[in-house]
Amino acid sequence: MSITAVELKHAYRLLNHGPVVLVSAAHAGKQNIMAAAWNMPLDFDPAKIAVVIDKNTYTRGLIEAAGTFAINVPCMQQSKVVMQVGSSSGKEARFAESDKMAAYQLPTFASTKIEAPLLAGCVAWLECRSLQGEIENQQKHDLFIGEVVAAYADSRVFSNGRWHFEGHDQLRTLHYIAGGAFFATGDSVSITP
Predict the structure, then answer these.
(1) pTM for the full model?
(2) How many C-beta neighbours within 10 Å does residue 185 have?
(3) For the segment 95-125, what is each residue's pLDDT rounded down to a tens digit?
(4) For the chain, where are the E strands, in sequence order?
């Protein structure tokens, strides 16, 4: 894995192509990870993202307590992981002794600006500070707005502010359609006016 820092002015491009993401959070020695298909870049400077996190998720409680979360952008080679963490809840009894990351033996590494762990093997990571002035959106619409405080990408498929998946099919991002169906990011197409 080859990770490179991404200029925050380009952080929105890590999500602009619409992939499913894995949201990780940690607080007071507890951590969790969940899948989220409804996410998007929101602003350039400072870089902001929006993600929908249901009231009933264990991850949401950690985010609300910590005030931070991480967005992990998984790829094709992690499709099983996406299904595992997306179809289970950290509130389930089987996770009482251990969190989902430990139970599924997911390799993680430390974030640099927040407490949430980052999932190894992804192609992008965004460390976010939850904007506390958006509590009404969180309560009413389950919409979390985060300011990106650090961003990273796998330089094999993202460099110079652009995605380039050619030759790396297993590193293509996943896009959730519904009912357990996904698409992988396709080939890039350049269009000039």
Answers:
(1) 0.89
(2) 20
(3) 877 889 999 999 999 999 999 999 999 999 9
(4) 3-5, 21-27, 30-36, 39-44, 47-52, 68-73, 108-109, 118-119, 124-130, 143-154, 158-159, 162-163, 174-178, 181-184
